[in-house]
Amino acid sequence: MDQWGKSVDEAKRKEIMSSLSQVIDPDFRVDVVNLGFINHVDLDDQGQCTLNMTLTVIGCPIMGTLEEMVSDAVKEIEGVNTVQVEYCWDPAWSVARMTPYAKAMLGLS
């Protein structure tokens, strides 16, 4: 799946990613971007931002917390009026989705 919707320009993409990189997973203590949780982002002309993300496991006990944190972070961006978080479990999350930074932070490099 392409990570960015057609309506997300480069400047807005950077702003969304910067905002999401401030969302720290309370269990891993690494941000959701570097953990590889973000699959797809779209922003329509009405300010509806749709985020497609995955987590490490289905039924993750902090799913609701992370969803709220991600939504709150993106709502701070000018031009974003609402945020919808969708989950995708296929393909499943794996350590391979993590950036080298996240792997180093977790002692996996």
From TrEMBL:
Gene3D superfamilies reported in the protein's UniProt record: Fe-S cluster assembly (FSCA)
Taxonomic superkingdom: Bacteria
Ranges for domain MIP18 family-like: 14-85
InterPro entries xrefs: Fe-S_Maturation_MIP18, FSCA_dom_sf, MIP18-like
Protein name, entry field: Predicted metal-sulfur cluster biosynthetic enzyme
Organism listed in the record: Fructobacillus pseudoficulneus
